[in-house]
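ok trying this again, last paste got cut off
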Amino acid sequence: MHPFQQILNSTLARTEGQPQPATPHNPLDLELRTLPVSATPEDFLALAKARRTIYLLGKALPLDEEKVEAIIKEAIRQAPSAFNSQSSRALILMGKEHDRFWALVRGQLRNVIPAESFHATSDKLDGFVAAAGSVLFFEDQETISHLQKQYIAYADNFPVWSEQSSGMAQYAVWLALAEKNIGANLQHYNPLIDEEVRQTWAIPESWKLRAEMNFGNIVAAADEKTFIDDDKRFIVAR
């Protein structure tokens, strides 16, 4: 099949046979799904400004763990993905499992960082352990591979689109947590920790770890954010 014809066919296919919405798993899921869409652009920008990298976090969440879990799941569900592939996956860790994760990271880092300079890393990890929970973001490579085989004309793009989907899922969760006054920070200790994470929590082989987010109550706010000049960042053409 000519690549152009395949692109046309795949575009048409995206309007058919889309996955049906999953049945809400709990009342909060149902509540989130049925809320009217009433947010204004000003609301969104205010929330975007409120989302910051918060390093000083605590374990006293302002919501029950079950509600936080539901918010994280719904944010990922609603994040966009190419061809509605829904390739993003997540491991949500609370309490002792969150602490267990950062003990795992500490152990892996000890293997690669000289002992005489490990104290700075250890202090940083202590801050992550102090949080209430963490979300590990994955991308399902099996989903990506299937799409590459199904739409050959786009094959090279699907891994790129997967990374974009993961970034949007991470941002969606970050915003959703910020809206509830829950702080977060994003880390990247993959691929160093990938195999031990896979074995510890029985992660499917096709899930590829992309990022790790800590969350908890805000102990100290972030410093004021600065921005580069607009003329270095934006081009506007009319």
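PB: full thing came through this time. Strands lie at 57-58, 88-94, 133-140, 182-187, 207-218.
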